[in-house]
Amino acid sequence: MTVSAQEVRCLLMRGGTSKGAYFLAGDLPAEPAARDDLLLRVMGSPDPRQIDGLGGAHPLTSKVAVVSSSADPEADVDYLFLQVGVDKPEVSDRQNCGNLLAGVGPFAVERGLVAPGPRETAVRIRMVNSGDLATATFPTPGGRVEYAGNAEISGVPGTAAPVVIEFPPGSAPLLPTGHVRDTVAGIEVTCVDNGMPTVLIPAESLEVTGYEDPKELEENPELAARLHELRLAAGELMGLGDVSATTVPKLTLLAPPRHGGAVATRTFIPVRCHTSIGVLGAASVAAGLRIEGSVGAPLAAPPGDGDRLRIEHPTGFTDIESSLTTGPDGLPRARRTAVVRTARKIFDGTVFPRPAAASPLPAPPSGGPR
Q1: Are 54 and 354 contacting, i.e. CB atoms less than 8 angstroms apart?
Q2: String of DSSP letters for 318-359
Q3: Can you spell out the DSSP letters for 283-296?
Q4: According to a count of CB atoms within 10 Å of the terminal CB, is the N or C end of the chain lower?
Q5: What gap in Å lies between CA 89 and CA 50, rounded to an integer?
Q6: Is the pLDDT assigned to residue 282 strictly greater than 70?
Q7: Residue 195 Rama label (left phi>0; alpha psi -120 to 50; beta)
Q8: What DSSP state is assigned to residue 173?
Q9: Which helix (H) or strand (E) holds 40?
Q10: Residue range 294-322: average pLDDT?
Q11: Burial of 79 (0-12, 13-18, 19+ CB in 10 A)
Q12: How far is CA 128 from CA 65, 81, 176, in A?
C-alpha cells in the first residue's frame, strides 16, 4: 500500500457528466472508516466550496472510484463507487455511478490491471455497490488509451473517444415493489430499478411543469418537502429501508418531450437537481417508459422500432439502448441496456490530503474575500 499521511496516488478523470478521483484499492486504507476519513480530506469536505481539496463544490464533482483486480470470473476489475458529501462529513457506498463507470476501463488500463488490445479494449467490470456487471469498450490504438475522438454527449463541452457500456440483465427485479404503479405519499408513481433504484413521477402531479431550470426547482421549498416525503416512503416500499441518510432512490420528474426525445426529465440526487441525468438513472427511466401501464408511458413519445430512446434533461439528452422481456413471474425484465459515454484523463499524480488533525476553516461572510 502506497498511502501515507501526506500523499496518495490519484488519477482525476471526467467520466460522463461527472468528475471524480480514481484510486487503486491498494493505495487506500483497507478499513472503511479510515478510508472514508482520508477521502473527506482529499476532497476538502465538509465545506460548501471544498476549497481545501479536489472536490468541485457539487455532488457531481465530489465522487470517488476505487478500482482493483476482481476475483469474480465474470469480471476483470472491481469498481467501488463512493459519493463524498460536499458540506457534510459523509461518504456513501449505497449506490452505483454510471458516469464514473465510463472512466473505470481506461483507468484499469492506465494502472496495468488490464492489458490493452491493439485497437480497442473491452473491460468487464463488477460494480461492487450492487454486484451488477458491465462491459466498457473503448479505443486503444497501439496499446494506449485514446481519449480524443468525435463522440459528443450533452453536458460536456467538445468531443472525446466513445466508451460503449453494455449492461447484462441483472438478477434484481425491474419492478422492486412488484407493481407497475404504486401510490406513494398520495402520488401515483412507478418504482423501477434497472441498475439504479429510481422513482418515476409525473411532474404535473407535483404542480411543476418538468421543464424548469434545476436551480428554480431546488429553490421551491414546497416541492422539496413533497419530494423528501415521497422519497422516504418509496425507499421503504422498494425494500431499501430508511433512506433518510442515503442518495437512493433517485427521484425523476417526467414530462412530455420538447426536443424530439422520448421524454423530458428532472432528476434529484436527492435534493440537488441533476444538471443532466446519471447513466444508470437514464437506464432505469428508459426501461420504465417501455413498461406498459407505467406512469411514464402516457407522457412519452411513441418509441420507434429500434431499442434506442433519447432521454431529454436540463442540458441536452442521453441516448439509451433499452429493451425488455417477460420473466417467468409474468413481470417485465430488462433484456438489453447499453449507452455511449466518454471519459477524459485530467490529472495523474499525487494528491496531498488535508492533515487529519486540521479542521476546515469556516466560509468567509457574504461579500468577503474570494
Answers
A1: no
A2: EEEEEEEEE-TTSSEEEEEEEEEEEEEEEEEEEE-PPPTT--
A3: HHHHHHHHSTT-SS
A4: C
A5: 11
A6: yes
A7: left
A8: -
A9: helix 32-43
A10: 90
A11: buried
A12: 11, 8, 20
DSSP 8-state code for residue 305: S
* pTM for the full predicted model: 0.75
Cα separations in angstroms, 200 against 61, 195, 260, 290: 25, 14, 20, 12
- The pLDDT tens digits of the residues spanning 18-54 come to 999 999 999 999 999 999 999 999 999 999 999 999 9
Run of H or E residues at 65? strand 63-69
Cell 496531498: give the residue. 352
Cell 434545476 found at: 214
Q: In sequence order, what are the residues at sequence separation of 6 or more whose Cβ sits closer than 8 angstroms to the Cβ of residue 331?
A: 173, 174, 175, 178
Query: Residues for the chain: how many in total?
Result: 370
- CA 228 to CA 231: how far, in whole Å? 5
Rounded CA-CA distance 245/134 in Å is: 27
Give me 229's grid cell: 416525503
| Cell triple for 182 | 404504486
| Residues near 112 by beta carbon (within 8 Å), at least 6 away in sequence | none
Q: What separation in angstroms does the CA of 163 have from each of 119, 122, 154, 188? A: 13, 10, 14, 36
Is the alpha carbon torsion for 199, 203, 204, 208 positive or negative?
positive
If DSSP codes are grouped into helix, strand and coil, which group holds residue 5? Answer: coil
- How many CA within 13 A on the CB side of residue 328? 1
